[in-house]
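Structure tokens please, single chain.
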Amino acid sequence: MAKLYPNSPVHPKSPNLNHVSSFPVTFENSYTNALPELAVTWNSDVAPSPKALIVNDAVAQSFNLDPQFLKTEAGVCFLLGNELIDGCTPMALAYAGHQFGGYSPRLGDGRALLLGELLNADGQRFDLHLKGSGRTTFSRGGDGKAAIAPMMREHIVSEALHALGIPTTRSLAIVATGEQIARETWLPGAVLCRIAASHIRVGTFQYAAHHEDPTLVRRLVDYAIARHYPHLVDHQDQYLEFFKEVAARQASLIAQWTLVGFIHGVMNTDNMTISGETIDYGPCAFMDAFDPATVFSSIDHNGRYAFGNQPNIGQWNLARLAETLLPLFSDDKDESVAIATEVLMEFPKQYQALWDAGMSKKLGLKNAPTDLVNDLLQMLHTQSVDYTQFFRSLSSVVSGDTSAARNSFINIEQYDVWESRWKELISRESQSPADIATSMNLVNPIYIARNHLVEEALAAATEGDLNPTLTLLEFLQQPFDERTGFERFTQPAPSEYKNYQTFCGT
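Here you go.
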């Protein structure tokens, strides 16, 4: 395996690592074999006293992994990368990226490792990737560790998005390491083992574009097309079509985020995948009261990644991707820029069309008028109405019960005027009111990963109690199905969460 830097040694093998030849899965390494310049061989730290906290049964079974085995001593060692089965060659991946607008040429996996690739039952290829596995050559002074709470946040929120039908990486397991790590205080350590369609980021292309090998970007694109967009392999304009499809997936992903009130929180170019999955959950959160300026991240002081700015940032990140692909679009630089610009100018239109379609479904309409939607959102904003709760209540209005929706507003008269306009449009729909209400409840969740519930679960998990996490996950895995007697899980955060902040955990 080629080294990234002449003076970057391969991490020595730990004498505590075992090599296991018999295992129910086979690892592959297509990415690092094809692109050795983008990875460094490395090993995870050996945990002093590991214990499985969470094993995602559904994810495990999709890869022919026995969830019960993963909870055993041997299974836990496998999840930590401390048991190297045949084909498993842990790698720290290289990438660059714009972080809060500032470019860093050398980022990479500073506390993460790619164990290898697995095929699921459908023959689809996924990365098995560790987070919190120790320092690497890319750690930039960090300790390479993770605490239980941030890893549990990623598990909870990624499962919530998955249940909402939003593309995302998924957590296979969380393992407590048995060590204490230093943050604001000493915290119990953990490693997250996650599944991803790949870890190819916009930042990966940025790194490749500045590599000494001028063929690296083309080879990276060829690999990405073969893995994620195989229908483009023989396309005459495959590189341009690749860029178009990446842009389309990002438009779809961000539209899905905003329709459910999700804020990623750190949309750096190294946190945008070309597969179109949500990745790298750090200061993420769901919005309570609707406000386009909502920011939760403690380090996003200027609101760069605020809720309402996410589509703009998506386009900005795609522009950075386009910069790396210009030589592949045309031999003429000006022509390449014109080609890329045309695609980028389509992005806001793509996003808006998806948002409009999604908002129409949330309102029970085939085509919701723009002024109706804008007036509603303005009203939600000025009156600080809970976004999720209000949209869920609208199905009851269709069924004849207006109390929950009306009681969400201080200025009820203003709402009544809007409701009359909306109900007039509803009356023109071809579906029955009952069918409309049912369809609305299929897109307007009643349960989301509300911040106060997540924090409650994380605090308990840090102290060794997983019950709040398991209970919360039970609801989040069926976000559209109301359960009587559990109203607490539908309520907005208490007032003390008005200035709520989230943290990356590094």
